[in-house]
């Protein structure tokens, strides 16, 4: 699951460490600084901003489910929007065998399918941190928006 936060009306990828929230952006914005990695390398295409929970409007995790042949599968972490494919994951050996999944590691199976084989994409937003008790929201991504959706998720 990927984590995000809403800050000043915009949605940003979120990293939480030791109670601190760190937003990420690919665009230089006010208050964001260039990322300096562990090795000391400066990244002029990744910008971060440290915040506390009080500074953001909402923090949440996104789980993406893909409906393939009438069944829901979790989305494997890698998506290829340029190839129009997605990778599905299953932990159920019988289901994996039935749908011709390949063994990724013990009890983990994956399968790559084209966007044309995707029947539906469901995005589930689960509030986290101090918002954890708030309602979970579900939305269905329209078929014509699959590629744009995955490109956005990969940023």
Briefly characterize the structure.
The protein is mostly beta strands.
* Unreliable runs: none
What are the secondary-structure elements, in order, as H or E? EEEEEEEEHEEEEH
CA gyration radius, whole angstroms: 18 Å
Give the overall pLDDT as a whole number. 91
Structural class designation: mainly beta
Q: Number of helix segments?
A: 2
Give the amount of beta strand, in percent. Answer: over 45%
The biggest sheet amounts to: 12 strands, antiparallel
Structure summary, number of beta strands? 12
Q: Percent range for helical residues?
A: under 10%
Distance between the first and last residues' Cα: 14 Å
Overall geometry: globular
Characterize the structure shown.
The chain has 155 residues and is mainly beta. It has 2 helices and 12 strands. Strands 1, 2, 3, 4, 5, 6, 7, 8, 9, 10, 11 and 12 form a 12-stranded antiparallel β-sheet that branches. The radius of gyration is 18 Å and the shape is globular. The chain starts with a strand and ends with a helix.
């Amino acid at each position: 699951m990927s984590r995000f936060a809403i800050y000043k009306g915009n949605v940003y990828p979120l990293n939480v460490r030791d109670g601190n929230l760190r937003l990420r952006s690919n665009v230089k914005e006010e208050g964001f600084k260039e990322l300096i990695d562990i090795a000391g390398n400066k990244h002029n295409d990744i910008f971060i901003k440290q915040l506390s929970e009080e500074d953001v409007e909402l923090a949440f995790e996104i789980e993406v489910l893909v409906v393939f042949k009438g069944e829901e599968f979790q989305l494997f972490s890698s998506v290829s929007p340029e190839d129009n494919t997605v990778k599905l994951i299953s932990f159920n050996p019988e289901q994996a065998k039935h749908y011709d999944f390949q063994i990724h590691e013990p009890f983990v199976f994956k399968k790559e399918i084209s966007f044309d084989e995707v029947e539906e994409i469901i995005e589930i937003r689960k509030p986290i941190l101090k918002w954890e008790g708030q309602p979970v929201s579900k939305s269905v991504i329209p078929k014509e928006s699959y590629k744009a959706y995955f490109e956005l998720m990969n940023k």
